[in-house]
Amino acid sequence: MRFSTKTRYGIRAMIEIALEDGKEGVFQKDIAEKQNLSVKYLDHIISALKIAGLISSFKGRKSGYKLNRSAESITMYDIHLAFESGICVIDCLCENFECEREQECAVLDFWKGLNTQIIDYLKSTSLADIVEKKVSIMSA
Q: Going by C-beta distance under 8 Å and a sequence separation of 6 or more, which residues neighbour residue 58?
């Protein structure tokens, strides 16, 4: 299983937005520069994060982007869901997939358990946890 580039870049963008704790939003060009991302590609990332309700535009003299909720209440799973429909470690766990071997599959419960553990881990890790790690790395 691999996480998409959009999910990974979405997390990076959210870190930059969360690091800004002032009243002014974070400029998209600043996010792109700090994370070494193309502004054009970041447009798609920002759009998905806005649609998911995780960030919003901050208008004013210094417009930019701000979190819609506290970093403590935003999980890695929330960010992942801005770009993907869910987590499926194997096809037969994905929505609308019909497996003709499901009734006789000896490992289905194993895959379901693994899938659940991944989701639970993403849900148990907040954006604040990741930002805290980033701050400790920057101050080292």
A: 24, 25, 64, 65, 66
User: Rounded distance, CA 109 to CA 111, Å?
Assistant: 5
Tokens, residue 23: 């009243």
31-72: pLDDT as tens digits: 999 999 999 999 999 999 999 999 998 776 656 899 999 999
Tokens matching residue 51: 């649609």
pTM score of the predicted model: 0.89
What per-residue confidence (pLDDT) applies to 102?
A: 76
User: For tokens 């580039």, what's the residue?
Assistant: 5
Question: What pLDDT sits at residue 110?
Answer: 95
Residue ranges of domains in the chain, CATH in brackets: 5-139 (1.10.10.10)
CA distance 118 to 113: 9
> Among residues 43, 86, 37, 83, which one has the least CA distance to residue 65?
43
| Alpha carbon distance 82, 24 (integer Å) | 24
